[in-house]
Write a structure and sequence with these properties.
4 domains, about 35% helix, alpha/beta, D-amino Acid Aminotransferase, Chain A, domain 1, Dna Ligase, domain 1, Glucose Oxidase, domain 1
Length: about 800
């Protein structure tokens, strides 16, 4: 019988002996080190050694008999039985041959170390039923860190063996249908990566919310990774685009600064009982990212290499050693939730009404749940959680697993997208809002609430039980529509999820939405940050603290927002409209009031093209252009097209075209197409001459209707007269469509009209429109309706014809 394997000689073929985690570690050391993936070495005990240990003194039979009587739904009895079994295992000495072999392997590993006196070890658990493609659970067994000396290592190995009978692990095996006697444990003794004085985190090779598989999600915080996993700290988050990474281009789509208020570090001692301590992070470190862009790219390359080797989405733990400054992979397991969720029908939750927001945080699960609040302050109170309750806690850890599956939703004060509560909520298929800060005090025990994770990255807890719907959307067998059916996309945080819907690209992405949600500061206030008066100057400085300069903050954040949408829908076209804030809307941004005029009718005032060519705003527009050029030319997202709004005159058209070219956005360069919003009667009446400056039109039916009919679309008094189907409006639209088709140029519509009025969509198709861009909630129905109207067969999943989805 073999008791010990060296990690560097282990492969996935050894999984029955060393478990999924250790098999993966060995596989990476053996096969991926030449590709640059750095994994700390060591050795592992075998499943045979573990079984021999349990065989001593009839321990296995005593454990089996105790578990046979256990009902794991009784959390009090589960806690008693688990503690008893762990006590038996801790009291049993290791077999003499196993202890001898561990001592020999330890001596060999220490002998290979350049500075053995300073070496410490991580003793990790690896069960034969964990980290499998169809069975994975976060933190089932224990890991002991910063262990020094062979006697302490031996103690840690026995404690790891005992952790196979943690309460959560016992319950997990029952729920997964594994017989306890069939599961064994391997203990890895692995070189300690000093992330306690460095940084650490988790990364996934798939977006954990939407299932978008062309991105790597990385979380990072200072100190030991347990603080991230257990939700003690809200980490930094990075999203990296795989295709750009593989081309050697800048690939970071999104950066989100976490508060990182604390870091988990080692205290005194090097034995199993040695403590860690939560220390406060200095303000200047909180307000900067915990890893550099270069390190983000390096980690993402590791992730892609590991994913390609295993041929599936992966969940990976990493650490940066604060002593040698290097990045290491600590473990890699198959991602088992999002990657298995795809099928021919997409399920989407839609909140049909809104209420008072009680708390908000990070959304997990893209679902909605409702029920009574159950505030739980410790695992000892878990028994009070009933099926259908909203579990509210400061944070959760693996000990909470037995009751988490009872909840309709989970809400925590602390945690990020990769914390324990988030991971388990995804596995259980329930929504969770994490990192709310105040849920345990702001939510009243017993009060009915609705937890919504269906509105983007932000999750909301609303007062009361609100109406919501679960929609089934076919994503296969979509028939060919008679025109291109595109989508209007509001904010980047919904892009990955919306890209899962049937689509043929994005017909409208509004840059002002990105500025509003990701910048929140008037662009001139950023350009003139040093000259601002207090307290505005300090507030701007606080918001941009993580960036090299206020200008870099604007350019980088806008580029991230645009790149996220372009990447989500690539290779389909994505048309981004440059900012179209009105003066009253710009005034609402931080610092905006001191730069914006007070206009009687901002809708007809200083907006769109006229802003870009005004000297006081030209440098603001230059920042937009810089961001757009970076996305296209540096990141390589050439599916991005640009659209200019509210071009009143031919002179403005010429000046704006020149301004774009001056900043590297010249029509035709690197295949760039520049469109124009056709939303003013002058655009249609002199369409041919406007088209001399642009590659096509996208019709804005809202503005066009108000200007043709002389109706303020924001006025309640004349709202009844606002109708895109008015004959005068249709005649102007016909002029624009015919001009574009005559010139062989693009023409689409991105206004609200086709979403609201199916007969308008029919008219547009008959008039020769090339694309219709719709709000996400109407894309599928309009697509199917237009296809069936054009004679395309529409089938259900079984291949049977279905009726017109909008027919009575």
């Amino acid at each position: 019988m073999t008791n010990i394997f060296t990690l560097s000689r282990i492969t996935m073929a050894d999984l029955p002996q060393v478990g999924g985690k250790n098999a993966s570690l060995g596989e990476m050391i053996a096969t991926l080190s030449t590709a640059g993936v750095r994994v700390p070495g060591g050795f592992a005990t075998t499943a045979d050694a573990y079984r021999a240990f349990l065989a001593g003194g009839g321990l296995a039979e005593r454990i089996e008999a105790e578990l046979a009587r256990l009902d794991v739904s009784d959390v009090v009895e589960l806690r008693r039985v688990g503690a008893a079994i762990r006590g038996w295992i801790e009291a049993q000495p290791l077999p003499a041959d196993l202890e001898r072999d561990i001592r020999a392997a330890y001596a060999e590993a220490m002998g290979a170390d350049a500075a053995p006196d300073g070496t410490t070890w991580a003793v990790r658990s690896s069960a034969t039923a964990e980290d499998l493609p169809d069975a994975s659970f976060a933190g089932q067994q224990e890991t002991y860190l910063n262990i020094a000396g062979i006697d302490h290592v031996l103690h840690a190995v026995r404690s790891v063996f005992a952790s196979l009978y943690n309460d959560r692990a016992i319950a997990y095996r029952v729920h997964q249908g594994f017989a306890h006697r069939d599961v064994a444990l391997s203990a890895a003794v692995q070189r300690m990566v000093r992330s306690d004085v460095g940084a650490s985190g988790v990364m996934f090779t798939i977006d954990t919310e939407s299932g978008f598989d062309r991105a790597v999600l990385i979380t990072s915080a200072y100190g030991l990774g347990e603080a991230v996993v257990q939700g003690e700290v809200n980490p930094d988050e990075f999203t990296v685009y795989k295709p750009a990474l593989q081309e050697g281009r800048p690939a970071i789509l999104r950066r989100q600064l976490g508060d990182k208020a604390v870091a988990l570090r080692f205290a005194a001692g090097h034995d199993v009982g040695s403590s860690t301590t939560m220390t406060s992070v200095a303000h200047e470190d909180r307000r900067r990212f915990s890893i550099s862009d270069a390190e983000v790219h390096e980690l993402a390359r590791y992730a892609v290499t590991i994913e390609e080797h295993y041929g599936r989405a992966m969940d990976i733990e990493w650490a940066r050693d604060g002593v040698d400054g290097r990045l290491y992979i600590l473990q890699a397991r198959p991602e088992t939730v999002v990657s298995r969720a795809h099928g021919p029908v997409l399920t989407r939750f839609v909140l049909r009404e809104h209420g008072r927001v009680l708390v908000e945080g990070r959304a997990i699960g893209q679902r909605v749940g409702a029920g009574p609040v159950r505030v739980v302050t410790s695992p000892a109170e878990m028994a009070k959680v009933r099926p259908g309750d909203i579990l509210v806690a400061e944070m959760t850890d693996p000990d909470w697993e037995p009751v988490m599956k009872r909840a309709a939703a989970i809400v925590t004060d602390r945690g990020g997208r990769t914390c324990h509560a988030a991971i388990i909520a995804r596995e259980l298929g329930i929504p969770a809002v994490v990192g709310t800060r105040t849920a345990t005090t702001a939510l009243a025990d017993g009060a009915d609430v609705t937890v919504s994770c269906a509105e983007g990255d932000d999750g909301f807890v609303y007062a009361g039980r609100l109406d919501f719907a679960e929609q089934s959307i076919p994503v296969e067998r979509m028939p060919q529509p008679p025109v291109r059916v595109m989508m209007n996309v509001g904010t980047p945080d919904q892009a990955f999820a919306l890209a899962a819907l049937p689509h043929q690209g994005v017909g409208l992405a509004r840059l002002e939405f990105i500025v509003g949600t990701q910048i929140g500061i008037h662009p001139r206030a950023l350009l003139e940050a040093e000259a601002l008066a207090e307290p505005l100057r300090s507030e701007v400085a606080r918001r941009v603290e993580a960036y090299a300069s206020p200008r870099d903050f604007f350019v980088q954040r806008v580029a991230e927002g645009v790149a996220t949408i372009a990447a989500a829908f690539a290779p389909e076209p994505v048309i981004v409209r440059t900012s179209d804030f009105k003066s009253n809307e710009y005034a609402h941004l931080l610092g905006g009031e001191q730069y914006e005029p007070r206009e009687e009718n901002p809708m007809l005032g200083w907006r769109g093209a006229s802003r870009y060519i005004t000297p006081s705003f030209q440098e603001c527009f230059a920042m937009e252009c810089e961001a757009l050029r970076f996305v296209r030319d540096e990141m390589g997202l050439r599916n991005l097209k640009i659209m200019v709004p509210f071009v009143r005159t031919l002179a403005e058209a010429a000046e704006v075209s020149a301004e774009l070219a001056k900043h590297g956005l010249q029509r035709g360069r690197n295949g760039l197409e520049v469109m124009m919003m056709c939303e003013i009667p002058s655009n249609a009446l002199t369409a041919d001459r406007f088209l001399d400056h642009f590659d096509g039109f996208s019709i804005g039916s809202n503005d066009m209707t108000q200007l043709v009919l002389g109706i303020d679309r924001d006025s309640d008094l004349v709202a009844a007269g606002f109708d895109e189907r008015d004959p005068a409006v249709l005649e102007v639209l016909r002029l624009a469509i015919e001009a574009c088709n005559r010139r062989g140029k693009y023409v689409g519509i991105c206004g609200q009209g086709p979403s609201d009025h199916p007969e308008l969509a029919d008219w547009l198709v008959d008039a020769g429109i090339q694309s219709i861009s719709l709000n996400p909630d109407s894309v599928v129905d309009t697509w199917l309706r237009l296809a069936q109207r054009a004679g395309a067969p529409v089938e259900d999943r079984s291949g049977h014809a279905v009726p017109d989805p909008v027919a009575p």
